[in-house]
Give the backbone structure.
Amino acid sequence: MTLIRGREKGPTLTLAAGIREGGFSAAASLLQLRREIMPEKLKGNLIIIPDADVQRYSGRSSQSDNIRMSHLSDAFPGSAKGTAAELIADFISTAVFDATDVFLELNGCDSGSDPIAFMCYYDNAEFMQQTMLAYRLSEASGLGTILSHPYPLSSGEPSKCAVKQAVRLGIPSLSMTLGGYEKQGSSSQPSAEEALYRIMAELEIYNNGTTKPSRAKKFRYNRKACIKVPFQGIFCSSIKPGDKIKESQKIGNLTDIFGNRKKTLRAPESGTVLYKTDADAVNADETVICIGYRIQ
């Protein structure tokens, strides 16, 4: 974790990666940002956590993504007397969030999914001012797809993920998913660093002198539908992340190991494919496609 203090006073923006699986590209983006930031131009503070869950590197090979040694992605709010993941979550929930004015989590694409780049925030009626700031920062990021969720937690329910915990504490919070383009290094979409610089410029805490407001077309959704398979099999689909689909449209088939078709999968809503599994062999109850859609 790195704390960068600005020359002038201002808000504290916390940037974190590695809380969920597949955070390697997100961690690389934050490390690059950390190298580029000049404290003398910063108005406020930056807390940068390039990789919150370093245990996930243990056992990782070139043929597979990480072997989960802990479950930081669902450990929040954590415990001072719990597992390693709960200790990390407790530190973030207390020491880090106590000093945070705005929180942004970066999620990379792991070996099992292929997402498009999109911004996500929770529409929490209890903290409307914070929700409006999260919306404004999402718009400023320059990413073409923005997803808002209703805040789903009751008062006694554990938050599990970092963004939900931050929202519960009244902190304006965002989640940025890096698209598969971050692996290839080219896209018409802005890079993670460009999106972060735009967000910092909108907060008026940092301007690198080259970042300009984005005028890219936006697709805005307020719900998502996750399509899960009912049994183990082989998932076959020509649908790609970013595709626009219609309700009831065929999005793939589930076959047995001999290629016999067992089930046709159809879209429950009209919207945009946010991410799709890269896996062919899938297990029962596994999410294979996620669709962003909008209700009035």
Observations:
- The chain is about 20% helix and 30% strand.
